[in-house]
Amino acid sequence: MSEIRQNQPNPTRRRRKPRRPKWVKNKFTYQLWRNWPLIRFVLLCLLALIIAISAVSCAAKAIGGLFTKDPAESTAPVDTTPIETTVPPETEPPHDELLRQADFLAAGYDYEGAIAMLSSSSHASSSEFQSRIAKFEADSQTLVKWGDMQNITHVFFHTLVVDNARCFDGDFTEKGYNQYMTTIPEFLKMMESMYEKGYVLVSPYDIAYEYVDENGKTRMKYGEIWLPEGKTPFVMSQDDVNYYGYMIGDVDPDYERPAVPHADGDGFAHKIIIGEDGYPTCEYMDAEGNIHVGSYDLVPILEDFIQAHPDFSYRGARAILGMTGYEGVFGYRTKPAYEDDLGTEAYKKECEDAKAVAQCLRDHGWILASHSYGHPSYGNISAEKVASDSDKWEQTVQPIIGDCDIILYPNGSDIAGIGKYTFDNAKFAALYEDGYRYFYNVDSHVAWQQLGEDYFRGGRRNLDGYRMWHTPKKVADLFDVSEVFDPDRPTPVPSL
To answer: Rounded distance, CA 469 to CA 180, Å?
Structure first.
């Protein structure tokens, strides 16, 4: 406190304030009394001005009457057009573009949004807009509520394979790729099959959400999903949206050096960027070292599919993207320890670019989630280590991608058995304190969900080489493996 005082300017002697009259009893009368000299001066000036204007007006009328022409003799027309004084309204999309946008919303079952868009337009009264609004209102009445919120499947993927020859090349990484990865042709055939079967992508927030009960406590409850008869909701996620060094051709087993893409990579995309159209897309380096921009992983491929099939997404839903932190996110080397290698300015740019990508993803409906910091199996480590790993995530990844309330357990390793979470479970207590409310493991059942008072928990189905080869019947509700399985994939797919 003494140091603070030493830095303050020396006080100056104040003049004694004039004594207030007795009628000054509140803030208004105080201000009136305090500023009365100025107020009085202004009032006198206004009074003088009014008198002067009145005198001039009277004189003008008297003089003008002597020289006024008969109206019949007047030849100059009087311009009565009002002067434009209004501010032009904000620009809105053209007529046809508004209809296109509204149709896209309606195709994704967001009839309320589509109606609101057209109703607020300057074209709202047109017959075409009114006809479209009436159609949307009628279509909304055909929706039915999904009856079993506990029966919603959740599928997940890892990074998609772009170049099969480079991925399945017989080296030490081939086994893991064959087990856990999905090729782009396989992914597209899966989506086409699920679309034909009536599956519709929904958000986990559509399934369950937080609310405040009558006692002021935050609780979790099931939501409502309204779809046409015959449609089936599902959730999608992708793990490890990081583009690790070993995948892009820059192997550093200790992760002490920031990875960069090389031509000898394993045939995967190496970064998410913002495309020229404002949508997220990917960079990919081919075997000759040439960098291409386009749909080389799940995010832009699924985005393309939804743009072509807007009824595949419920009210703009996209997938959940899970990231670790030990190399950075989205292909950007944002790990704080990399600043020394990259240099301060280059490191700052990596972080800023990653933040921009994160915001772009959120803006387009993608949900960002934790996949832990270091990818340990949470079910097999102590509560202290779980808390420490979560803290590292909060310190290093959260500043890049923002707050998140979903965790996709690394290795699918849950922190408890099938019984409900309680705060007696130190791992759950630590993760809950860190802001997580949605917890996902890996489970081979069609659907497994658990709603607690304070959380939502669910299982996820891996749609990869292992699942297709070893248990094809467990995905028969989604697609026929014989029609999806990539002929380039080595067989037999190794067991886990």
So the answer is: 11
Exposed/middle/buried for residue 311 (C-beta within 10 Å: 0-12, 13-18, 19+): middle
Strand boundaries in 205-297, DSSP class E: 208-212, 218-222, 226-227, 232-238, 269-274, 280-285, 291-294
CB distance 363 to 435 below 8 Å: no
The domains of the chain are located at 95-142, 153-484
Q: Is 323 helix (H, G, I), strand (E, B) or coil?
A: strand
The reported pLDDT for the residue numbered 11 is 35
Parts of the chain with a pLDDT under 50: 1-27, 30, 33, 60-89
C-alpha–C-alpha distance, residues 189 and 484, integer Å: 6
> In whole angstroms, what separates CA 106 from the centre of its chain?
20
Instruction: Strands of 19-102 (E only): list them.
Output: none
Please tell me the distance from the alpha carbon of residue 257 to that of residue 50, in angstroms, as a whole number: 81
Three-state DSSP state, 255 = coil
For the domain with range 153-484, which CATH number is right: 3.20.20, 3.40.30, 3.40.50, 1.10.12?
3.20.20
The tokens describing 295, both together, are: 């749909």
pLDDT at position 70 is 42
pLDDT at 62: 47
At residue 30, what are phi and psi to the nearest 5 degrees? -65, -45
For 289, 320, 436, the CA distances from 443, given in Å and listed in that order, are 39, 17, 20
Contact 321, 238 (CB under 8 A): yes
Instruction: Give the pLDDT confidence score for residue 59 in this predicted structure.
Output: 52
